[in-house]
């Protein structure tokens, strides 16, 4: 459930008309509903009530520090995959004891930053990373708490770009090699083995792959404890899907029920890394129609939002519902909703039935909270959109729209070119 609804034929976010935000802040703009964010966080967290667990929000889904702070204030932590995300989480006020660090390519500097912060745990993704982490921790006189990210070779039945649990994926250590790597980790002085990690993919719409993965992890957990390893944490990652079009993903309660049953009798603290399921349907991408164009074969609706703002349709062929901010009656037309970027792949929707929209109309691209702004870029030297958080009857700009000077930050013309030589 989300808090975007029509009132008197005007689309609102909570109590605020979206047209008001467009008038005061401009377009394109991401609009987040705080009530929806809180509701979704509680729905997920409370589904695991009675189990020792920690919800570490997946920062990569939407990395604005206001959202990170909101979830931290609700008792959550952060799942990070870069030094920049570590910086964001700490700046947002997340206690380091609630931060877990995943990702296949942690640099030595990023590892040092995380060790200096004394984060809860590193999810180690390769034997070489294990060696590097031990060396850096030992050089700093620290001990790195670790889990190995185990690749269970489970088909998540999702888009191949966001499937992460198969042998052919770059993530994790193969299940059959995990025990040997855990034994090696135990022998390294700069490491403390505390957990097992597994993440099989994103936008999962079935419980079965989760259950299959947990079954493989239980066997490994038993083997590790038999060898005297004190495994305290079981990190099940994230990946629970949302409804974009006609998907019927399991609700958090169904997912939690399956996990409870699969983990019955195990004495571990669960770490859960939801992202999309919390923020996905908590935001819309608001864009204004610039022109309409009819060719011999197509009708185009050209808007001021583009693939640099919302990449998912171009990158994944993803569906996002599109609704006029002011409800329209009358005949509908099949159109492509496209942006200003000089790429044929710059589209927000193809062959979509929409009411007769005209230049100046506002459109809301639904379910835009996850991997929307966080994947945006400055392609074509376009300024990044603003972000707005609605709270009841009011709203706050939580990221201002970039200005042209922002596009040049960090660039400089060398003296020999400045001189013309």
Structural class: alpha/beta
Kindly report the name of the CATH homologous superfamily of the largest domain: Alanine racemase
Return Rg in Å. 23 Å
* Distance N to C terminus: 62 Å
**CATH 2nd-level architecture of the largest domain:** Alpha-Beta Barrel
Number of strands: 21
Basic shape: globular
Share of helical residues: 25-40%
What is the typical, i.e. mean, pLDDT?
91
CATH topology of the largest domain: TIM Barrel
The overall number of domains is 2
Q: What's the helix count?
A: 13
In the predicted model, the low-confidence regions spanning at least 5 consecutive residues are 158-167
Strand percentage lies at: 25-35%
CATH class of the largest domain: Alpha Beta
Largest sheet, described in full? 9 strands, mixed
Structure notes:
The protein has helices spanning 18-25, 34-47, 65-73, 83-91, 108-117, 127-140, 175-187, 208-226, 252-262, 276-279, 312-316, 404-407, 415-418; strands at 4-7, 10-13, 16-17, 29-33, 53-58, 77-80, 99-101, 121-124, 144-151, 173-174, 191-197, 233-235, 269-272, 283-294, 299-303, 322-324, 332-338, 347-355, 362-365, 386-391, 394-399. The chain is an alpha/beta fold and 421 residues long. It folds into two domains: 4-31 and 280-407, Lyase, Ornithine Decarboxylase, Chain A, domain 1 (Beta Barrel), CATH 2.40.37; 103-272, TIM Barrel. The strands form three sheets. Strands 4, 14, 15, 16, 17, 18, 19, 20 and 21 form a nine-stranded mixed beta sheet that branches. It has an eight-stranded parallel β-barrel with strand order 5-6-7-8-9-11-12-13, surrounded by four helices. The longest helix has 19 residues, at 208-226. The protein is globular, with a radius of gyration of 23 Å. It starts with a strand and ends with a helix. Mean pLDDT is 91; it is low at 158-167.
């Amino acid at each position: 459930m989300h808090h975007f609804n029509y009132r008197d034929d005007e689309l609102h976010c909570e109590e605020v008309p979206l047209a008001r935000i467009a008038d005061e802040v401009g377009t394109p703009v991401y609009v987040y509903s705080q009530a929806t964010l809180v509701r979704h966080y509680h729905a997920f967290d409370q589904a695991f009530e009675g189990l020792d667990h920690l919800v570490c929000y997946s920062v990569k889904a939407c990395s604005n520090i206001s959202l990170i702070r909101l979830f931290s204030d609700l008792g959550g932590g952060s799942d990070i995959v870069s030094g920049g995300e570590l910086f964001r989480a700490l700046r947002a006020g997340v206690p380091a004891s609630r931060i877990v660090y995943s990702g296949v390519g942690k640099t030595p500097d990023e590892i040092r930053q995380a060790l200096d912060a004394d984060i809860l745990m590193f999810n180690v993704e390769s034997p070489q990373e294990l060696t590097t982490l031990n060396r850096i921790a030992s050089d700093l006189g620290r001990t790195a708490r670790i889990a190995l990210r185990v690749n269970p070779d489970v088909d998540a039945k999702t888009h191949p770009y966001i499937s992460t649990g198969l042998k052919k994926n770059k993530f994790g250590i193969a299940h059959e090699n995990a025990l040997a790597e855990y034994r090696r980790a135990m022998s390294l002085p700069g490491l403390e083995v505390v957990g097992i990690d597994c993440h099989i993919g994103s936008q999962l719409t079935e419980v079965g792959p989760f259950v299959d993965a947990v079954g493989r992890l239980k066997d490994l957990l038993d083997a590790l404890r038999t060898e005297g390893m004190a495994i305290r944490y079981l990190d099940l990652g994230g990946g629970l899907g949302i409804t974009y079009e006609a998907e019927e993903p399991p609700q958090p309660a169904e997912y939690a029920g399956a996990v409870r049953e699969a983990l019955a009798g195990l004495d571990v603290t669960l770490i859960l890394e939801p992202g999309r399921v919390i923020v996905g349907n908590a935001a819309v991408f608001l864009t204004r129609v610039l022109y309409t164009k009819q060719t011999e074969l197509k009708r185009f609706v050209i808007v001021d939002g583009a693939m640099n703002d919302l990449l998912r349709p171009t990158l994944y062929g993803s569906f996002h519902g599109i609704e006029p901010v002011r409800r329209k009656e009358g005949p509908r037309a099949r159109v492509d909703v496209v942006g200003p970027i000089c790429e044929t792949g710059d589209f927000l929707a193809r062959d979509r039935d929409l009411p007769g929209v005209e230049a100046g109309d506002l459109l809301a691209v639904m379910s835009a909270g996850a991997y929307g702004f966080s994947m945006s870029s400055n392609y074509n030297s376009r300024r990044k959109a603003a972000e707005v958080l609605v709270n009841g009857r009011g709203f706050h700009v939580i990221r201002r729209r970039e200005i042209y000077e922002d596009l040049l930050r960090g660039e400089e013309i060398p003296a020999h070119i400045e001189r013309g030589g």
